[in-house]
């Protein structure tokens, strides 16, 4: 039986990530090969012509799953009836800037778009914020869209999660698909804590071994590995002169697909979600946790042990998010 199309909003669709993301969505990477989609693309008036060019290319690509395209600079029209909203619109970081530096430009956008989503999106719309500072933009969106359930608002740290998998894969010369259960804790920033203490690798024999045991180099795992993942966004900006785009788009698809379709048994992923105080992370922040997803709902993985080194790292990134929250409110006042 043919499925009803799902309406997917991409804001900032004329930008770099948007250009990589919309063909992935139209090809079924987001929701699977049998799920038709209608794309809603929003950008600002100076980008309208370019947005129309993206629409033309989507028509030219003749994607079988793509049942319609709305390309607009009107935020109400863009948000109307959407089931999934991927919020990429905003200003990216340039070389030499911290993600915090893009704060004042972006939080006011998220305050305004919160109201539009609240008024016009479908009930139970799932929201993923990609634009930086991603955790704090998501928090602002949540606070200014009080009727959207807090469980439906998330931010992207899956890119960091995938980066951690990539680093372990290169170090151990194993494929990323054999590695599971790394964790990104906290902020999508250089204070994030990429944690491998519970991560395992499936060996060709079928046996599972811990990443720590296989790497057998705690100095690397507690030092260079962490800083490489924390600084990877800056390294991409330095190399490309633009921030990451294809890997960010792919990670956004991974995030939504696992949220909607579920995580495999025994596997968790990292998502920035509203903290309920788990692991003594202050409640009321959007913080990246290990989560499993089932029936369209995420749950924070509970009961993982944290050593003193990890505890300090979790607290440090929470402190930064608390500061960002205060700064965001000061930008809005
Ligand atoms: P970009 O500048 O290429 O594209 C951004 C687009 O947003 C532009 O087309 C711009 O016109 C549009 N825009 C600006 N204000 C808007 C508004 N109010 N409404 C709708 N659209 C608006 O940037 P990019 O490289 O695509 O990056 C987008 C964002 O994603 C940046 O904030 C970047 O820092 C962030 N990012 C996050 C992650 C992550 O893992 N969370 C990864 C990569 C990039
Ligand atoms: C990334 O992690 O690549 C993005 O957040 C872009 C940036 O500013 O680092």
Automatic annotation (TrEMBL):
Q: What class of enzyme is it?
A: oxidoreductase
GO process terms (BP): malate metabolic process; tricarboxylic acid cycle
Native source organism of the sequence: Cucurbita moschata (Winter crookneck squash)
Q: Which PANTHER family match?
A: MALATE DEHYDROGENASE
Record-listed substrate binding positions? 93, 99, 132, 163
* Protein family (similarity comment): Belongs to the LDH/MDH superfamily. MDH type 2 family.
The residue ranges of the Lactate/malate dehydrogenase N-terminal domain are: 6-153
> Which NCBIfam families does this entry report, sorted A to Z?
MalateDH-SF1, MDH_euk_cyt, PRK05442.1
**Single GO molecular-function term?**
L-malate dehydrogenase (NAD+) activity
Name the source's superkingdom: Eukaryota
Q: What is its EC number?
A: 1.1.1.37
The reactions it catalyses are: (S)-malate + NAD(+) = oxaloacetate + NADH + H(+)
Q: Which UniProt keywords apply?
A: NAD, Oxidoreductase, Tricarboxylic acid cycle
The catalytic site is made up of 188 (proton acceptor)
Mind telling me which SUPFAM superfamilies this protein's record contains? LDH C-terminal domain-like, NAD(P)-binding Rossmann-fold domains
UniProt protein name: Malate dehydrogenase
Q: Which residues form the Lactate/malate dehydrogenase C-terminal domain?
A: 157-326
Looking at the keywords, is NAD present? yes
Annotated NAD(+) binding sites: 12-18, 43, 106, 130-132
């Amino acid at each position: 039986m043919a499925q009803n199309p799902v309406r997917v909003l991409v804001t900032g669709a004329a930008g770099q990530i948007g250009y990589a993301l919309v063909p992935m969505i139209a090809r079924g990477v987001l929701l699977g090969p049998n799920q038709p989609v209608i794309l809603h693309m929003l950008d600002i008036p100076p980008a309208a012509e370019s947005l129309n060019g993206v629409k033309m290319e989507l028509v030219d690509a003749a994607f079988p799953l793509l049942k319609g395209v709305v390309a607009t600079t009107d935020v109400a029209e863009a948000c109307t009836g959407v089931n999934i909203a991927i919020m990429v619109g905003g200003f990216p970081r340039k070389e030499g800037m911290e993600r915090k530096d893009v704060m004042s430009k972006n939080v006011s956008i998220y305050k305004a778009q919160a109201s539009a989503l609240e008024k016009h999106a479908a009930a139970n719309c799932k929201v993923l914020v990609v634009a930086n500072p991603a955790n704090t933009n998501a928090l602002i969106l949540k606070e200014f869209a009080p009727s959207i359930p807090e469980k439906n608002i998330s931010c992207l740290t899956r890119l960091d999660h995938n980066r951690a998998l990539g680093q372990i894969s290169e170090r151990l010369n194993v494929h990323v698909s054999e590695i599971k259960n790394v964790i990104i804790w906290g902020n999508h920033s250089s204070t994030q804590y990429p944690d491998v203490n519970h991560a395992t690798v499936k060996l060709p024999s079928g046996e599972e071994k811990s990443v720590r045991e296989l790497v057998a180099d705690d100095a690397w795992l507690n030092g260079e590995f962490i800083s490489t993942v924390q600084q990877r966004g800056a390294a991409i900006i330095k190399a490309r002169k633009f921030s990451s785009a294809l890997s960010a788009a792919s990670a956004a698809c991974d995030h939504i697909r696992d949220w909607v379709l579920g995580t495999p048994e025994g596997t968790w992923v990292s998502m920035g979600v509203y903290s309920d105080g788990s692991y003594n992370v202050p409640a009321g922040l959007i913080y990246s946790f290990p989560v499993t997803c089932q029936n369209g709902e995420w749950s924070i993985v509970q009961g993982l042990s944290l050593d003193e080194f990890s505890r300090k790292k979790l607290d440090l990134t929470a402190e930064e998010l608390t500061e960002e929250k205060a700064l965001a409110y000061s930008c809005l006042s």
